[in-house]
Amino acid sequence: MIQKKICMLGSFAVGKTSLVRRFVESIYSDTYLTTVGVKIDKKVVTVGVREVTLVLWDIYGEDDFQKIRWSYLRGASGYLLVADGTRRATIKKALELEQKTREEIGPIPFVFVVNKSDLVQEWELDPAMEAQIATMNWAILRSSAKTGEGVEEAFFRLTRKMLG
Amino acid sequence: MGSVPQRSQESLDTRSPMPDTPKSRTANESGNDASPDSPGSLEELRHLILAPEQEALQRLTNRIEKPESRTEDVSGVVAEAIQKRRELGGEDALCAALAPTIETALRDSVRRDPGTLADALFPVMGPAIRRSILETLRSFLDSFNQILDQSLSWRGLKWRVEAVRTGRSFTEVALLHSLVFRVEQVFLIHKKSGLPITHAVAPAVAMQDPSLVSGMLSAIQDFVHDSFHTERGQGVNRLNVGDLDVWVEDGPYAILAAVIRGVAPRALHERMTETLENIHAEYASSLERFDGDSAPFANINRELSRCLEAKFKEESPRGGYGYAWAAAAVLLALVGGWLGWRWWQYHRWSELVATLESQPGLIITSFGRVRGRLVVRGLRDPLSSDPQAFIKVAQLDPTQVEFHWSAYYALDDTLVQKRASMALMPPPGVSLSVKDGVLRVEGQPPAKWLDDLRSRGMFIPGIRALDLGRFTPEQIAFDEGKGRIESIVVKFPLASAALSSAERATLRNLLPQIRELLNSPVAVQGSITLEVVGHSDSTGADATNQNLSQRRADRVAWEFIQLGIPAAHLHARGVAAEAPVRPEDTEENRQYNRSATFRVVVASLPQP
């Protein structure tokens, strides 16, 4: 059995928890997020003939009151970097988080997920930022926790990246 | 390969002994060859004669000598050969021959790529393991359930109520109550990623997903570590919630977490440390390189299972099953009592039936238990003893016994006698007896009654004959005559033996009767003597009285002789006042003692 620890990273209220809620097995309530700052869920992904168990650490989004506990990222094989397409600040934060992660635990695979694709007309992505992201050669996905769009794909792509 | 042509040549030589030397060739071919001098022609001749065989031989040789063709040959029959061998019963030898090779092959295969075999076995192993676990679990639970089910203890009942109340299984409740401690789950968790490397769980324990629990455990470790800025390696090593304890042992690459219910001893801590150390020693490099693949740790589980200790409260089975024993004893006593009572009742019934059966005039045709009552059916003579009376004697409740009698005439002698007495009403002094249906009469029955008996006696059920014995008309007449004569008192004057004329007339009047007696057929049975007894009153001297009484008797006898009664039939004797006719309380009665009376004596003939 192959297991991988992955983290959900992103600003507060970008929809990380919503993103995974419909697609994972969970025994813990969301209150853990606010108390311990992390909630563990599980997702089984099949890549080719291999079944990979993803142990998801849904880490409390950073906001003005609470910092991300970087120790939660230790041992992670990859992460989903989540931003809210309708809030520019969260995308900016995602870029910061990516950099910080690289500093804290080194370069590990990640997939950048821009959430709330169902509200694409309200997105605040400006061309300059898009250009900046484009230069970084990131794996970017649009997702919607509401419609389920891109969610499976996000886990799948991240898994493939982790397995190399 | 080099040897092939050479061997082929040899074989050719042996099979066709054509000599190569000119000498032998000459000797051999001189008789039939036209051109013996040409070796070429000889060769040609040989070729001509033996070509087809040579070619066939060559082909055969090639097939035998060339490994490729041999392989081909064998491959064509190998399956059939094995099949044949098995049919012939050589399977054991076949297995023994193949086993080492197969074992080596399997080992090699696993060494090269465990996945291949694992994949091949996966569909088989999953169900097999599941079944094995299920069986173990079931037998464990069954035996546990059985023991507790059997115990009728109050405690067992309480646990049942608790199980119903809390919605848990009875086994679980019982287990928790009788548990000192039990290590329910052990997690070996990769320290860095929080991923479970492996996980062991005790039987019948509800378990959560090891990945999630491991993750959360290490998250908490991290959380505490970050929050309180402890040194690395100084995380939480004990969590306590209710009666659940989580002990955490910290190692360089992995942590060992045990979920314990109850109060575990210190020794468990040492066991965990030791286990974690062993794992680190054996799998150090694998642990260091762990990237989520738990395959290299497949054998660790046995190590972990050693930590799944459990200790139950020691209870003496006597105490534990005291109630059960008591209940069993009470039950046994009840059953025993009931059986005993039934036996006693049956015994009483049997006794009653036996008593009834022994009674004349009662015949039991059937008896048995009907709705707890004894029902007896039979025949009863109305004159027989009352059966109800025997119920009391048998110490039985009369309401528990039911009689159904049909009336009949019993032929038992006692009942026939009763019946005869009721029908004939014998006068006082007369008794009836029945023996084997023959009615016998005793006493002094009046002739009239005897006539009645004679006419009706045979109609009484059970009487088949009358035995009237001496009560023949002759005897009766004799007895009556005898009675009359014996009632006569011949009176004499005071101190005199002289007969008055009146008395003499009385004596004369007796004559026909005396004659009748003496001539009676009864006399055939013995000699009849008319005894004349002389009496005197009690006054006067004894000697005088004796003399007087003798004379009085003699006087009467003499009178009879005079009247013609043979003297041989007469016997006179005086008894003085020794046998008074009447007590001398009055003068009149005293007069009766100055008298003579008679006794008719029938002397039996001496027996031959």
Can you summarize this structure?
Chain A is of the alpha/beta class. Chain A has five helices and seven strands. Chain B has six domains: 3-65, no CATH class; 79-112, no CATH class; 178-312, Beta-Lactamase; 324-407, GMP Synthetase, Chain A, domain 3; 413-471; 474-604, 60s Ribosomal Protein L30, Chain: A (2-Layer Sandwich), CATH 3.30.1330.
Structural class of chain B: alpha+beta
Largest binding interface between chains: A-B, 27 and 25 residues
At the fold tier of CATH, the topology name of the largest domain in chain B is: Beta-Lactamase
Uncertain regions spanning at least 5 consecutive residues of chain B: 1-35
**Over all CA atoms, what is the radius of gyration of chain A?**
15 Å
Biggest sheet, spatial arrangement of strands of chain A:
2-3-4-1-5-6-7
* Low-pLDDT windows of residues of chain A: none
- Head-to-tail CA distance between termini of chain B: 149 Å
Please tally the helical runs of chain A, counting DSSP H or I stretches of 4 or more residues. 5
What's the CATH C level of chain A? Alpha Beta
Q: Can you tell me the overall shape of chain B?
A: elongated
Percentage of residues in helical conformation of chain A: 25-40%
- Structural class per helix/strand content of chain A? alpha/beta
H-E string of chain A: EHEHEEEHEHEH
Shape of chain A: globular
How many domains of chain A? The number is 1
**Total DSSP E strands of chain B:** 16
- Major pleated sheet of chain B: 6 strands, antiparallel
Taken together, the total number of domains of chain B comes to 6
Main sheet record of chain A: 7 strands, mixed
